[in-house]
Amino acid sequence: MELDPLLLSRIQFAFVVSFHAIFPVFTIGLASFIAVLEGLAFKTGDGVWVKLSAFWTTVFAVVFGMGVVSGIVMSFQFGTNWSNFAQASANFLGPVLSYEVITAFFLEAAFLGVLLFGRDKVPAGVHLMAAIMVATGTFISSFWILSANSWMHTPAGYELREGVFHVTSWSEAIFNPSFPYRFLHMALASFLTGGFVVAGVSAWYLLRGREIEANRKALSMCLWLLLFIAPAQAVVGDYHGLNTLEHQPTKVAAMEGNWETSKNVPLLLFAIPDQDNQSNLYEIGVPGLASLILTHEWDGEVPGLNEAPIAEQPPVAIVFWAFRIMVGLGMLMILFAVTGLILRTGGRYWRSSWFLHGLRFMSFTPFLAVLAGWIVTETGRAPWLVYGVMTHAESLTPSLTGGMALFTLLGYMIVYALVFSAGLYYLLRVLYVGMEDSHDGGKYEAERPSRPFSAAHVSFEIDQNGHPDNPASQEGH
């Protein structure tokens, strides 16, 4: 069987992007949390805020490093696997990606050094400014990356001459039709990811009875954040969906599993899309709800997949189910955020072991939701690389063979497995050791573990009776 370089190149880029995406979506939210902690420490002088900031800055540094290592190869793939696309889009993507490096990466790298190593070497105000600059740099970076990616979904401000994109309006190209919605959607996703990870780790420490005051404060802050951000993400997602319906109707049709353009379209809770026969098997849905969500009218018309030739339809089953995973996890996040508000009475939010265990599980869900959303976005665009203008096949490097693509794909998998394993091991070490006592301001004493480290300790701390091994977990259920 002959190896398909197009399929292997798509798998390779999907693997690299998916692996890389989980790191910046966490560090963007975490950087803002650290900046808030530094601000509270600067204002109050309370050593608890210093302790929290020092601990989460260490976590940030590890994850940031893994993100840099995993993401640096993505731009090279434009030349190795997608040279036709790189040549055609260079007039726009070249400057935009350069702006990202100049305005964001240098800013983050310079001030991250001050944030990591300057706590006792520079004035407190300078250290606070470093935290703010790192947080700002993460958002500037996501601005340029999402602008470039959004342009590929909703190209604007260009003209095509002899197969090359020439920019006619930089403002229209950068602020293309889908960019505002996708940027805000990703920003909120980053806050959700950072919030749930911090909440989950804090819950794990509280279950073990470690550093109660600091982790109770961190958990409280995150639950307030999630209470507002989680519902806001649903609202932004709705507007994003309306924008996608306008500019990429085939993607929306795949998301809904809707084959024929019609009104009063049901929201399918379950179905097995059969792309060969252009229909669904075993449908379970709510009548009219898809029309209401997508058009804000019960009898609104929703486009069908049959509006596009089969060759221009995305893999419907993948898009259909990835979308439902993303939405389902989003609803679960809202449920936990509201539950946290209900449990605030009497401090039950940090005393109820079942809720704390639930938060530990929820710390993984934002990453799954982001990956599912990314699959919906990118797979739903197929077969277009620049939507409606340039396909994946037209973008491929002409000289690339299936063997070459397979070799590099396997190489990336091996290297990334090593990088992830090493990074995860060190990250779990940091989490197990906990908050350092060198930045407590004389007000707080860290409890250092006396047992040797193992990943099992991080995930499961259960005593002989089957209960979490701390008194707080047995106080309220």
Explain what you see.
- Residues 437-477 have low confidence and may be disordered.
- This protein is globular.
- The protein has helices at 5-21, 24-44, 47-71, 74-80, 83-117, 124-153, 170-174, 179-207, 212-247, 249-256, 289-295, 316-342, 353-362, 365-379, 392-395, 402-433, 455-459; strands at 158-161, 164-167, 262-263, 267-274, 279-286, 301-302, 384-386, 390-391.
- It is built from 17 helices and eight strands.
- Strand 7 (384-386) and strand 8 (390-391) form a beta hairpin.
- Helix 1 (5-21) packs antiparallel against helix 3 and helix 2 crosses helix 8 (179-207).
- The strands form four sheets. The chain has a two-stranded antiparallel ribbon with strand order 1-2. It has a two-stranded antiparallel ribbon with strand order 3-6.
- It is mainly alpha-helical.
Determine the N-to-C terminus distance: 59 Å
Structural class: mainly alpha
Count of strand segments: 8
Strand content: 5-15%
Name the helix and strand elements from N-terminus to C-terminus, one letter apiece.
HHHHHHEEHHHHEEEHEHHHEEHHH
Backbone CA Rg: 24 Å
Mean pLDDT: 88
How large is the count of helical segments? 17
**How would you write the strand order of the largest sheet?**
1-2
Report the uncertain regions.
437-477
* Largest beta-sheet details: 2 strands, antiparallel
What gross morphology would you assign?
globular
Helix content: 55-70%
